[in-house]
Predict the structure.
Amino acid sequence: MPAVTVDAHDPRWTAIGERWTGLVADALGRLDPPEGTGPLVVEHIGSTAVPGLAAKPIIDLQVRLAALPTEEALEAELAPLGFSIERGARPDSPGVYRDNPRPGADPDPALYRKRLLTRTDVEGEPPVILHVRRLDSPFAAYVVAFRDWLRAVPAEAAAYEATKRSLAARHSDADDYDDYTRDKTAFLDAAQARMEHWLAERDRSERGPR
């Protein structure tokens, strides 16, 4: 994996994310029961999904299913698109086999199991990472809320960008993203109360007066 870099926002990322969201949704829509039981949600997440935000030049997509498919089932449908199962740079690489519960979330370990797939072999296009999670994963809900918060509050997006640029400089010679990812947790922890306040205000606004 390349050294940690944070690039200026590329306007193409939105269109690339939308295209891969559709391709992955079509592929996984062919999963046979029980692998494909229940609804399927595929969405563009992460910094490349926030207009104007600098990011590692990687398109992150989240796949949510009622139950985690087997690795074999995922590869059968996604290998034709160039995806393969990711094993991580280290045995404890964060976010490869499981997510870490956010403060205050349901800690049930079963909710945080995941599959991770990557596509890295296309010249001229950024790599694509698929985070496959359960529909009821609290972490899946968190990453969507975090994306929406950054989209809605430019000052928070700017603060997040400054943090990422500082950490990228610190870890510029690293062989993988693991320590960079761990160090971002400090920002996420400090920002969580602000994000939750924004979510509560948004939900009240959407419900309207009673």
Summary: The chain has a mean pLDDT of 91.
